[in-house]
Design a protein that fits this description.
Elements: H1 16-35, H2 44-49, H3 55-59, H4 77-80, H5 82-91
């Protein structure tokens, strides 16, 4: 799975300026986590949509026989597509 980097909020790009900002954020993360609870927010649904997952991808093996459509039930992807969710979270660090 490919991580999709979060755009740089100033330039709208993911170039070297964005990389430098990401490095600074990551360097501060352990210090901030030791001080307080952090809430990281991003466009999770939008990032999931970039993967164009079909019904089978949402179901995975775990929910293969589920009687209802599960496409769009993004919360299930933690169980059925954990690598995609992990990649998205990593892209926002």
């Amino acid at each position: 799975m490919t991580a999709h980097p979060a755009p740089n909020s100033t330039t709208g790009s993911t170039g070297s300026t964005g990389d430098a900002r990401r490095d600074r954020r990551l360097a501060r993360l352990p210090e901030l986590l030791a001080e307080r609870i952090l809430v990281l927010d991003g466009a999770m649904g939008t990032m999931i949509q970039t993967h164009t997952l079909d019904e089978a991808a949402f179901r995975g093996e775990r929910f293969r026989g589920h009687p209802r459509d599960l496409r769009g039930a993004n919360d299930l992807l933690v169980l059925t597509q954990p690598a995609i969710i992990s990649d998205i979270h990593a892209a926002y660090l």
